[in-house]
Design brief:
The protein has 14 helices and 16 strands. By secondary structure, it is an alpha/beta fold. It has three domains: about 1-205, 3-Layer(aba) Sandwich (Aminopeptidase), CATH 3.40.630; about 210-320, Muramoyl-pentapeptide Carboxypeptidase, domain 1 (Orthogonal Bundle), CATH 1.10.101.10; about 320-485. The strands form three sheets. Strands 10, 11, 12, 13, 14, 15 and 16 form a seven-stranded antiparallel β-sheet that branches. Helix 8 (about 230-245) packs across helix 10, helix 9 runs antiparallel to helix 11 and helix 11 (about 320-335) packs across helix 13 (about 375-385). The longest helix is centred in the first third of the chain and has 18 residues, at about 30-45. The relative contact order is 0.10.
Length: about 475
């Protein structure tokens, strides 16, 4: 199936400010929505579905993405199923429950989808239905139309679309369930069950297209974990990452606070880039901890640190090539909230409490000390300089300069240079992608099942960020095999 997932909120407001959704309690609604979708998307992709996610990073406050625009985004993708994931809030703390919404009574597919997902969530989480529409599992929005459902095409014809409020954050009973360890995994699995029931599929018989010969669920693995997960399982993950040698940019082990934040995310991606699973296969560098990633990290912890630093030596993240060291720097910029300040200015200093070099001004300053300029290519150049790339393009802040440079970098393994044709190549972590002469960024990972890459790029929505895009047949015109360099 072609499935669209929308983690609600998490972008700039249509008029001003940041659209966080319900934010009276931590984590904010946009964080919860993204955490559930991150786990759900990976599960569905592993089972062979084509999955589209409306925003591939959280938060994405650098762009405006209204509910109606999300509806149009979904309608343009010829989806079989579209689910917008939310968590409700209410001024009355006694109001609680979960609920499904569909656009109108002339959209029976949306009604059926919303009903099945709400029923699955109720049975899995133990959260009752809210009082919307008289207390059943699903209804239309009482105050008219929801933009995310009505902003696109006629969903009764093109597919099934619904919005799901997974619970009410301002209700104490619901909040206790939502904030419990393992919530993302449980909520994602329930939504998956609802989708499958609607589509007439049996979750029990759907398997990944190319599973390993033996799937081992390692001892100690209790739940899927992703950005914004919380609880004892995350605390143990942080301990294991420190045990195998991961250190943050200050050279410190992870704080075992049970909070899966940007530092833990970078630690997971660092481990995924260096380890293999128990069957000897490379790990996806998606920052999501499932049984394969957890098993690899736990097994390495039994052996010892990957990088035992000497007491008098600076800590080195140990990424062995220019490409992977450059990628680590790109992820560092993303984790340190590098963005234009003000947005749209093509300039900007660091965020509050961030280091001075974590800024657009620092990235551009090597070439444009005082001038505002588009900075995607400068972002790549700054990362490669930090990684020690000896021979740079003639003018790194220009996208076409990277393409011309790649054609001239002839190696024994790449006699025709480093330029790649997406139609006949598969990228590796740290390689580059180009949209003609308009845009450039890094490849974080490539999924051969979906044909999509996860990116790390500058000047994306006026910020450093990441997203999931198609490698072949989309906007990417060229790749650069930066990973071929030592």
């Amino acid at each position: 199936m072609r499935i669209g997932l929308d983690p609600g909120h998490g972008t700039a407001g249509a008029i001003s400010g940041r659209d966080t959704g319900t934010a009276e309690y931590a984590p904010a609604e946009h964080e919860l929505n993204f955490g559930v979708v991150a786990v759900l998307a990976r599960q569905l992709e592993a089972e062979g579905h084509t999955v589209f996610v409306s925003r591939a990073q959280d938060p994405d406050f650098g762009r405006v993405f209204t509910p109606s625009a999300r509806g149009r985004w979904a309608a343009d993708r010829d989806l079989d199923v579209f689910v917008s994931v939310h968590h409700d809030g209410n001024d009355n703390p006694a109001f609680g429950g979960l609920h499904g919404f569909y656009d109108n009574e002339g959209a029976p597919n949306g009604k059926a989808l919303a009903t099945q997902i709400a029923m699955a969530l109720c049975g899995t989480l133990g959260i009752p239905y809210s009082s919307y529409g008289g207390g059943g599992p699903a209804c239309t929005w009482p105050q008219g139309h929801l933009g995310v459902l009505s902003g696109g095409a006629n969903w009764a014809v093109t597919g099934a679309a619904c919005l799901i409020e997974c619970g009410t954050m301002t209700n104490a009973a619901d909040r206790a369930i939502i904030r419990a360890a393992g919530y993302y995994t449980r909520a994602a699995e329930a939504i998956r069950q609802g989708i499958y029931t609607y589509a007439g599929l049996s979750p029990a018989v759907v398997v990944p297209p190319a599973p390993p010969a033996i799937v081992v669920v390692p001892a100690g693995f209790t739940e899927y974990m992703a950005l914004y997960s919380r609880g004892p399982a995350v605390r143990e993950l942080q301990r294991l990452l420190s045990a195998i040698g991961y250190r943050d940019e200050a050279g410190d082990p992870l704080v075992m606070d049970g909070d899966f934040g940007p530092k833990t995310l970078r630690g997971v991606q660092w481990a995924q880039a260096r380890l293999v699973d128990l069957a000897g296969n490379a790990l996806d560098q998606d920052g999501i901890v499932g049984p394969l990633t957890y098993g690899a990290i736990a097994a390495q912890a039994l052996v010892g640190a990957l990088l035992p630093p000497a007491a008098d030596e600076p800590v080195d993240l140990g990424l062995a090539t220019v490409a992977t060291r450059s990628l680590e720097r790109a992820l560092w910029y993303i984790a340190h909230d590098v963005r234009e300040r003000p947005m749209g200015s093509n300039r900007g200093g660091p965020g509050t409490g961030q280091p001075a070099d974590a800024s657009v001004n620092a990235i551009l300053g090597r070439w444009f000390p005082n001038e505002a300029q588009p900075w995607c290519a400068a972002f790549v150049g700054a990362c490669c300089i930090h990684a020690g790339l000896a021979h740079l393009p003639s003018w790194p802040p220009l996208v076409s300069s990277w393409r011309d440079w790649a054609q001239k970098q002839v190696t024994a393994a790449m006699p025709n240079g480093l330029l790649m044709d997406p139609a006949t190549s598969r990228p590796r972590p740290g390689d580059l992608f180009l949209f003609g002469d308009r845009h450039i960024g890094f490849v974080v990972s490539y999924d051969p099942v979906t044909g999509k890459i996860v990116t790390a790029e500058g000047n994306f929505g006026d910020a450093a960020g990441t997203r999931r895009i198609t490698w072949r047949g989309g906007s990417i015109t060229h790749g650069v095999r930066l990973s071929a360099l030592e």
